[in-house]
Structure formats: structure tokens, C-alpha cells
Amino acid sequence: MPNWGGGKKCGVCQKTVYFAEEVQCEGNSFHKSCFLCMVCKKNLDSTTVAVHGEEIYCKSCYGKKYGPKGYGYGQGAGTLSMDKGEGLGIKHEEAQPHHPTNNPNASRLAQKVGSADGCPRCGQAVYAAEKVVGAGKSWHKSCFRCAKCGKGLESTTLADKDGEIYCKGCYAKNFGPKGFGFGQGAGALVHSQ
Q1: In this model, does residue 135 exceed pLDDT 70?
Q2: Is the dihedral of CA 71, 73, 77, 83 positive or negative?
Q3: Which 3 state secondary structure label does DSSP give 63?
Q4: With the C-alpha atoms ordered 39, 44, 48, 49, is the resulting torsion angle positive or negative?
Q5: How far apart, in Å, are the Cα atoms of 58 and each of 87, 133, 188?
Q6: Global pTM?
């Protein structure tokens, strides 16, 4: 349809925008009075606008609606916000609590998950923010514990056997050499050549 009005159409109200009142953003034209955040209605300019498709937002509302979610993505240093973005039309699902298990066949469980990013202890996906690598596998930080005593481990303080991880003490007690002469002191057997 020909545009007989002589100007471009506003990206918000679809009325003709004349040169004196025009604001351009990403190839679209807007009235100065229409160049507002779609959520909070704040006036925008080239430094405060964030575009998503045909929609325009202030950077704060854009971040709440389309930005990263979760721990560490606050509004500044040390800020914790309880705003879940319901005013922006965001719907949240309740997160299921994490319950690590002491599965004796952890390696079989990891095979069921079908990828190296499945935690061998609980079977859930392991994402980069919560990943600890040990014994050649990816674990959740909360699952990276001794299978016997539950002590938290580090990649340098673990021993692994049959796809499960143990602290050095539990590994020695359960899988180390047994019997007379396997002590640590003066009575220990010594191999001499």
C-alpha cells in the first residue's frame, strides 16, 4: 500500500512519523513520545535502549525479561533481588530439590544418562557453573563427596574405584592392602633387593 502521508510509520503506534519528531533505532522510526520502554514506560535514548525483535526496552527491563537468570546476576555488587519478573510476563517453574544418592553402581547410572555431562552420583545434567571434574568425569559440587563417609573432596584428594570416588582414608581402609606387616611404622614390611 502506498504511503501517501509522506513519512515513515512509527514502530509503536503505526502513525506517520515526520522528520522533526523522528527517532531512529535499528532501521525503524519512532515518535519521540513513543520511544518508551514497553514495560516501565521510561523515555529511551541511544544509550539506554535494548531491542528484542520489534520490541524496545530499557536495559533494566530487558535484562529482567531476557537476560541470564540465577545466582550472581543481580543489579550490582552484593544485590539480591526477589523480583522474579512476573510483571514482565515471565512464568517460573518450581525447581526440584537436589538429592544426591549413594548409588553403588554409579558408573551404570552415568551410562544411562548418555553423555559425559551427566553426574555419576545423581544422574542429573552438570552445567559449567556447578561442575567439578574428578576421576575423568563431571560431578556437581554437592555430589563430589566420598562414597563412604560423605566428606567433601577436591580433585587432588580423591581416589577412585569402579566409577565411584572416595577420600584417601576410606579408600585405604576399604581397598588398600590388608594383613600383618602393612602398617606405617617401624614394624612394616620392607622390600629390599
Answers
A1: yes
A2: negative
A3: helix
A4: positive
A5: 15, 40, 73
A6: 0.35
